[in-house]
Amino acid sequence: MLLKALSTTFALMLPSVLYGAVIEEVSGIWVLNGPGTESDILLTEDGSRLRGEYDLLTDDPSLSCIPASASRVWANPGSRVKIEITEDTVFISYELFDLRREIPIGDQSMVAEMPSTKNLAGTYFQEMGSSYAELEEDQLRITSSNHSPGYIRTSRGIPQGPDTVTIEVLEKVGDALRITHTYTDQTLYEQPIVLEYFLSSVDATDLILYECTESDYDWFNELNAN
Question: Could you give the CA distance from residue 193 to residue 46 in angstroms, rounded to a whole number?
């Protein structure tokens, strides 16, 4: 019994023992630094059709305080992101829409049927997918699936769908946190879409409440009417 207890205790300690460096490097509060980059976006016939049907002024989920996708949330200028890692879970808190993402550390078997993201009011968002995380020597890797339809680029209506699988690789590069975000979906994309963001560390202890309310693009219409 003692040997079994020691074995269990050691197993629980493994993430911090083996991956302490990457946990320390990735943890903290971050904010987007610059617009980032993206690979060529080549859509299939279905992907092009969905993009053609998209109308920014009426179809942008952000107007209803709904995250259109994880990439949309990562790439939001000025919004802080807080990353915390425990022995078995990655917690990512986004100021945008007051989102809270809870991701188990493990493998594909850890993926829950429920989405990994909800807001402070307890509303879940399948647009962010269901995820699991893996710790590597110098990277945090998050794999997500079970997405509901959304948009990885709301300004251009680049879609995601039920067959979309994403991989987010987080790693420290110099003083910045680099996120390499790969979208794969043979029904929508001719080739994987690779997005890259860089975030800077923020000297803060917590996030500011966003407290989103539904909106519209009246300001956009007024601007273009002048």
Answer: 16
Residue type for position 226: N
- Measured in whole angstroms, the distance separating CA 100 from the mean position of its chain's CA atoms is 10
Which DSSP symbol is given to 126? Answer: G
Q: Quick one: tokens of 209?
A: 């409440």
**What is the pLDDT at residue 110?**
93
The three-point CA angle 128-133-138 to 5° equals 125
Give the up-direction half-sphere exposure of residue 30: CA atoms within 13 A in the CB hemisphere.
Answer: 29
Residue range 19-67, pLDDT digits in tens: 788 999 999 999 999 889 999 999 999 999 999 999 999 999 999 999 9
Chain centroid to CA 206: how far?
Answer: 19
The CATH H-level superfamily of 18-201 is Calycin beta-barrel core domain (2.40.128.20)
The model's pLDDT over 112-162, given as tens digits with 9 standing for 90+, comes to 989 999 999 999 999 999 999 999 889 999 999 999 999 999 999 999 999
Q: What is the pLDDT of residue 226?
A: 53
Domain borders along the chain are 18-201
Q: How far is CA 215 from CA 4, 105, 151, 218, in A?
A: 56, 36, 18, 9
For residue 150, give every residue at least 6 positions away whose Cβ sits within 8 Å of its Cβ, in sequence order, or none: 61, 67, 68, 69, 72, 127, 159, 160
